[in-house]
C-alpha cells in the first residue's frame, strides 16, 4: 500500500505554501507536488536542493520527510537519479553519470555507490514492453506526433511526462548494459523526438523536459559510440550541447563535452580529446566530480598524442580532484581508482608500456563492482591487446576469447574492435592452443575473417 507523506505536506503548510505556489518555486506542475505528498512518486534529485530550500530544511531532513514510504510498498516509486551515461539525477542541474564509460546512469538517491541492477533489472524486451504498455494506457504519447496533439495531451493532466520518460530511460540503460545498443537505439531516438513534440505543444515544465531531452541525446550518443557509429554519436552530442547552452547549464555543458572527449579518445584523436576534456574542466562547476572525469580523459588523450609527461600529470590531477570532490550521487558515483586506472592503462598501451598496462588493467577489472559485464569485457579486450604486444600470447588469447563472447552477445564494437586488433597481432603461423581456440571462436561467430 502507498503511505502518504503527511509530514511533507505539513511542512509545506508551515512554510505558508500551497501546492501551486511550491510548484511555481520549483518549476514543476502542481500535480507533481500532489503526487509527492500522496506517496505516488518522489522528487527527481535535481529538484531536491530547491525543495529543501523552499521548505527550510536540510538535505538530510528532506530525506526524512520523503522516506515515509515503506521500501516494500509496490506502488511507491522513488525517482532514482545515464550512463548516458547517463546519465540521483543531477542535484544542481541535469542528471548525469557515465556508464563506467561514461553514459548518463542515475544513481539511487542516498547511495552513490549503487549497483544498477539493484534498482531495475530489465531486458530489452521488457523495455520495449514498457513502451508498448505506455502507449496503450497513455494516449498522450501515442498521438504526440499527430495532427492536433495539444488538445489530447491537455485531457491527461495527471500524466507526469518527465517521470514517464525518466522511468523508460532507466529501463533502456539497463537493456543496453545487458544486451547491447542495437535494440535500444530506435526507442531512444524515438523518445527524443517525442520529448521534442511535447515541448513544441507546451506540455510539461520546459526546463525539466529540456533536461530530459539532453539526457536522452547524450545516451543516444553513447549507444552509437558503442557501435562505433561516429557520425551519429557526434550528431547527438552536438544536439545535446546546443540544448545545454540553451539552458545555460554549465553542469550539462561539461558532461556533454566529456562525452565528446570520450568519443574522440575511442576514435583515436588524442589532441581533440585533450582540448574537449580541458574545455569540460573549465565548464565544470566547482566541487563536482566532472573535473576529475575530464582530467582522466585528458590524460588518455595526451597518451594517444604521445605526450607521456602531460598524461601522467592529468591522471594525477584526476585522482586529486576525485579525492577532493564533494559526494555527488548525480554524477561520478562510478569514479573510483578502477575507473581512472583503466583509462590510464589504455593510454599506456598507446605509449608502449604494454606489460605495465596489462597489470593495471587486471587490477582495475578486479576492483570493479559486479553488474558491468560489457564494460569489464571492453577492458579485458584492451588488456588482451596489452598482453599480446608484451609477447604474452596465452593470457592474451584467453582474455580475448572471453571478451569476444560478450562482444558477440551485445554487439559491442568497443569490444570487437579490440578483438580484431588482437587477431592481427598474433603470429599467423602459431600453433599455440589458446590462440587456435580464439581463432576458432572468432570464425564460428563471424568476428574474424576466415
TrEMBL record:
SMART domains: HTH_XRE (SM00530). Residues 8-62 form the HTH cro/C1-type domain. InterPro entries: Cro/C1-type_HTH, Lambda_DNA-bd_dom_sf, TPR-like_helical_dom_sf. GO terms for molecular function: DNA binding. This is DNA-binding XRE family transcriptional regulator. Keywords: DNA-binding. It comes from Myceligenerans xiligouense. Signal peptide: none annotated. Pfam families: HTH_3. The keyword Oxidoreductase does not apply.
Amino acid at each position: 500500500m502507498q503511505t502518504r507523506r503527511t509530514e511533507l505536506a505539513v511542512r509545506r503548510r508551515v512554510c505558508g505554501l500551497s501546492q501551486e505556489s511550491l510548484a511555481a518555486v520549483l518549476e514543476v506542475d502542481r500535480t507533481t507536488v500532489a503526487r509527492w505528498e500522496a506517496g505516488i512518486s518522489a522528487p527527481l534529485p535535481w529538484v531536491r536542493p530547491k525543495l529543501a530550500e523552499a521548505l527550510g530544511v536540510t538535505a538530510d531532513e528532506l530525506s526524512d520527510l520523503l522516506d515515509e514510504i515503506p521500501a516494500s510498498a509496490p506502488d511507491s516509486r522513488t525517482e532514482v537519479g545515464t550512463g548516458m551515461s547517463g546519465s540521483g539525477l543531477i542535484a544542481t542541474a541535469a542528471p548525469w553519470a557515465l556508464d563506467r564509460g561514461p553514459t548518463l546512469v542515475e544513481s539511487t538517491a542516498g547511495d552513490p555507490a549503487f549497483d544498477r541492477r539493484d534498482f531495475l533489472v530489465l531486458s530489452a524486451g521488457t523495455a520495449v514492453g514498457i513502451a508498448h504498455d505506455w502507449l496503450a494506457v497513455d494516449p498522450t504519447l501515442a498521438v504526440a506526433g499527430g495532427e492536433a496533439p495539444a488538445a489530447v495531451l491537455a485531457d491527461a493532466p495527471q500524466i507526469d511526462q518527465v517521470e514517464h520518460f525518466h522511468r523508460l530511460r532507466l529501463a533502456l540503460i539497463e537493456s543496453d548494459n545487458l544486451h547491447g545498443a542495437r535494440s535500444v537505439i530506435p526507442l531512444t531516438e524515438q523518445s527524443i523526438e517525442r520529448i521534442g513534440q511535447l515541448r513544441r505543444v507546451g506540455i510539461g515544465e520546459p526546463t525539466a523536459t529540456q533536461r530530459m531531452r539532453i539526457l536522452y541525446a547524450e545516451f543516444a550518443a553513447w549507444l552509437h559510440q558503442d557501435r562505433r557509429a561516429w557520425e551519429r554519436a557526434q550528431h547527438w552530442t552536438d544536439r545535446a550541447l546546443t540544448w545545454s547552452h540553451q539552458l545555460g547549464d554549465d553542469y550539462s555543458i561539461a558532461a556533454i563535452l566529456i562525452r565528446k572527449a570520450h568519443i574522440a579518445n575511442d576514435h583515436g584523436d588524442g589532441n581533440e580529446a585533450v582540448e574537449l576534456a580541458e574545455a569540460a574542466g573549465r565548464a565544470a562547476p566547482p566541487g563536482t566530480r566532472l573535473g576529475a572525469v575530464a582530467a582522466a580523459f585528458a590524460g588518455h588523450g595526451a597518451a594517444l598524442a604521445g605526450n607521456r609527461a602531460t598524461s601522467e600529470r592529468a591522471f594525477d590531477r584526476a585522482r586529486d580532484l576525485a579525492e577532493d570532490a564533494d559526494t555527488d550521487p548525480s554524477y561520478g558515483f562510478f569514479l573510483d581508482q578502477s575507473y581512472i586506472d583503466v583509462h590510464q592503462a589504455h593510454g599506456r598501451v598507446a605509449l608502449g608500456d604494454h606489460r605495465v598496462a596489462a597489470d593495471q588493467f587486471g587490477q582495475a577489472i578486479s576492483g570493479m563492482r559486479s553488474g558491468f559485464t560489457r564494460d569489464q569485457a571492453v577492458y579485458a579486450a584492451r588488456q588482451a591487446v596489452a598482453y599480446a604486444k608484451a609477447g604474452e600470447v596465452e593470457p592474451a588469447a584467453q582474455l580475448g576469447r572471453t571478451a569476444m563472447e560478450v562482444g558477440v552477445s551485445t554487439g559491442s564494437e568497443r569490444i570487437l574492435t579490440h578483438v580484431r586488433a588482437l587477431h592481427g597481432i598474433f603470429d599467423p603461423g602459431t600453433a599455440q592452443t589458446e590462440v587456435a581456440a580464439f581463432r576458432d571462436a572468432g570464425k564460428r561467430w563471424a568476428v574474424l575473417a576466415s
